[in-house]
Amino acid sequence: MTTSTTTPTPTPTPTPTTLADWRPAASTRLVTLPLGGTVLVDVETLACHELLPEADRLLRTPPGTPVGLTDAHHEFLKQAADDGWITRGRDGEAP
After folding, report:
1. Angle in degrees, CA 49, 50, 56, rounded to 5
2. Is 63:89 a contact under the CB 8 Å cutoff?
3. Per the record, which residues fall in region Disordered (predicted)?
4. Of 6 and 82, which is predicted with more confidence?
5. Buried-most residue among 11, 17, 45, 87 (CB within 10 A)?
């Protein structure tokens, strides 16, 4: 009888806890779709950016809430800020 072992997929390691402080930019809205899912909509151009559930949760996290961010979270926040979709909650600066 042989025993097979599988190596579990490693979970991304969050960076040290930081405080949530992100929100949609002034020209964007966070919209929940009727059949599920969430998009950021640019109200000036009606361009949409579909969000993964974890990105949706991150943007809906109340300011000041401790969160652990993975590299993927940092990449999303940087890209979304660079594209003008989100800003910092308190001061309007990019994440």
Report:
1. 110
2. yes
3. 1-20
4. 82
5. 87
**Cα–Cα distance between 76 and 5 in angstroms, integer?**
34
Q: Quote the CA–CA distance of 94 and 77 in Å, as a whole number.
A: 8
Q: Where are the domains of the chain?
A: 18-88
3-class secondary-structure state, position 68? coil
The mean pLDDT of 40-45, rounded to a whole number, is 94
Rounded to 5°, the CA angle 86-47-83 comes to 35
What count of Cα atoms within 13 Å lies in the side-chain half-sphere of residue 31? 17
pTM of the entire structure?
0.69
Residue 66 above 60 pLDDT? yes
The answer for residues whose C-beta is within 8 angstroms of residue 66's C-beta and 6 or more apart is 17, 18, 19, 20
